[in-house]
Amino acid sequence: MAISKEQIFQVADEMDAAGQNPTLAAVRKALDGGSYTTISEAMKEWRAAKAADNTPIQEPPPPGVMDKLSEVGAEIWGVALELANGRLASEREGLEAARLEMEASRLEAVELADQLSADLDDSRNQVASLEGVAQELRAEVDDLKGKLTTATERATTAEARSGEMERRANDLRSELDRAHQEADKNRQALERVQEAAAKAADTHKAELAQAQADAKQAAKDHKTELAQSQADAKQAAKEYQEQVEALRAQHSQALESAQEAKAAAQAEAERLAAVNSSLESKQAQAEEKLAVLTGEVEKAGAERDSALAAVATAREEAAALRGRVEGLEIALSRGEKGDGSQK
């Protein structure tokens, strides 16, 4: 809203009546704003009017002086008036020159004040804009701090998970090594049992062959004795029959022993084969678990590396934003200092 001259005159009169000097800044402050140019023009008129009110009145000499200086008073008074008017004209010329100089200075000061006021308004607008940008950057910094905290927590969790996976993998490797050792022991035991069974079978075969050879030799001897002595034929035949039956019994026992040893060897071989198959199955399962855990360890390592990379990126972004915020705060502080100095 524009300020009228009447309002400016009223404020100047009130301040003058209160004994205060109505300067441009004081009048503008009392009006709560306004253009320095408008206030300056109005105050110029107000001061001119006040100066006119204070101009001394030219009056004739008082009656007492005229009575006492009846003869020479008028002449002396004329000379005094002439001197006074001459001095007054000289003073008026000096005052006019001083007034013109003051007017030029005043106009320059008014223009400077208007310029400073506009610059101050621009500075305030820039400060407000920078404060908004600073608030946005602070919010962005806070958001990045939250992301940095989350990424750090994820990295810590990934590292812990990776360590746990590595421990589980080491446990499975140890278990797999023990399974391999046990399988080797069982294979060695199976080989020893198979060797013992083979040796037992060979021994029984040799005994059976020897028994058959003995039986053939005995039959041959009995045939020779039968040819030499027919009297002892029945007895020899009986003894031969008994020996044959004994040899058959020995042969049968040898066969049974060999079959039992073979069956025991086969049973032991089957048991060891089953144990070996179970160990191989466990070994395969352990290897599958190890492969799965190895994949999980690699995945956890990749997640950890990704989390660490995210943490590093977030830290770099936070550092860059901190630099920008610090630069803006420095600019704000300089703007505030400049605002204070202009005031």
TrEMBL record:
Which source organism does the UniProt entry give? Answer: Cycloclasticus zancles 78-ME
Domain KfrA N-terminal DNA-binding, by residue range, is: 5-119
**Protein name, please?**
KfrA protein
Statement: the UniProt record of this protein carries the keyword Disulfide bond: no
Q: Which residues form a coiled coil?
A: none
**Alphabetically ordered keywords of this record:** Plasmid
Pfam families for this protein: KfrA_N
Renumbered to this chain, the Low complexity biased-composition regions fall at 149-160
Instruction: Please give the superkingdom of this protein's source.
Output: Bacteria
Q: Where is this region: Disordered?
A: 148-170, 194-245
Q: Which residues fall in a compositionally biased region of kind Basic and acidic residues? A: 161-170
